[in-house]
Please model this.
Amino acid sequence: MLFNSYTFILVFLPLTLLLFHALRLARWTRSALFSLTAMSFLFYGWWNPIYLLLLVPLTLANYMIAKSLLPQGGRRSPAASPFLVLGIVGNLAVLGYFKYANFFVDNLNPLFGGDLHLAKIILPLGISFFTFQKIAFLVDVYHGQVERLNLLDFSLFVSFFPQLIAGPIAHHSEMIPQFRRIGSVAAALTPLGLTLFAIGLAKRVLLADTAALYATPLFNAAATEKPLDLLSSWSAALAYTAQIYFDFSGYSDMAVGAALLFGIRLPVNFASPYQSPNIIEFWRRWHITLSRFLRDYLYIPLGGSRKGDVRRYGNLFATMLLGGLWHGAGWTFVIWGGLHGLYLAVNHGWQALRIKRIPSATLPGALSRRFAQIITFLAVVVGWVFFRSADLTMAISMLESMVGLHGVTLPAQLANGVDTKMALCVAGLLLAVAWFLPNTQTLVGYSGPEYAHARYGERQAAVKDWVLSLPWAVAIGGLLAICLMSITRISEFLYFQF
Model:
């Protein structure tokens, strides 16, 4: 079931809200949470009920392991360490089989002259997201950060439908305390949730889908033997850069908005990343909760920045390599992660040397920042070429085209019917929105990127009540109507495949 589908918007979401709030208002709060959990599992199994044969056993197995990790009498059990290893290895083994088995077999066969072939493996939706969430929870239980646990709270934590498929990767300390106070949710969250959901839907249906009309056929053309020209390749790269931005930004807004309708606040996961003046800040704004997970559960355990600069940069590179592999089983994702690891290492090294940026000596501060944003943006675009390409050959061909090695331009209409000049104009207009307009959280007074890292009480204080004035109500209602009329076909969010 997709957020941008009639089934979700007109059937599933209203029914789930009605059932949940009817039980909550009757003061049957645990029943309300149970109904939300059951509907979340239904949401996950909507595509294919067989997915539930994975999610339900994994939930029960991780719950039992977590219970075994809880301290007894204030002391950790001697069996805790083996159980933690079992939990981490077990979760990674499941993820590895479904997501990476074919990738490794395809790469090992040529090396060893093998002819091993696996049956087609269907990748369960969102497996990377809920695997990381479960691993983080087990590690925190082991370290004594969870005092008590019950099956209902845990099941809802790992299955809550607004964040189940594509994040945010919520932390238990952000979610479970809210479940236990669900009986006193603020009514003011409903208009805020509707506003965020409507804005997110508009980003996806009106903006991301428009960019996809140009990005998809151009990248499909690039997959053929004939390379694109300079204009076409930049049209493709910039259109996809706009598409993935508004696709993920729209999903993030819709996830937060849908959760607010149930009185639950999800961490902010997206905060105008294309406005970043450097790659460090980009990763503080793009997929914020994934960056947090990689930092807390991979980069810091590897040693972080505590063991010298060489080790620090190596840890950054290794973390981003694995982050790239997390996104997909392919060398293009590995290269994308490695590129960002290299970007981060260079960025940190530059800052460590305390050398001012070259343009800052001759440009005013505002122009210097804008120049830095342009350099950062171009580096991100190069990364997206690898991220979107079907293989390394296609990615390299695209980059060659982008520097003019395959000609400057073709006639306005390519064989696939895409007007590349129009594609550049559309991509430019969409990216101008990303560069110059405030992000959704700023617009509605929700909170900034620090939301995902703050303590619960600080987050509560940071969130303002959204007053849905008459002009805003008319605007949001009109936006929803336009979006519903614009849903001509059902297409998955890009991050659903991860």
About this structure: Residues 189-222 form the longest helix (34 residues).
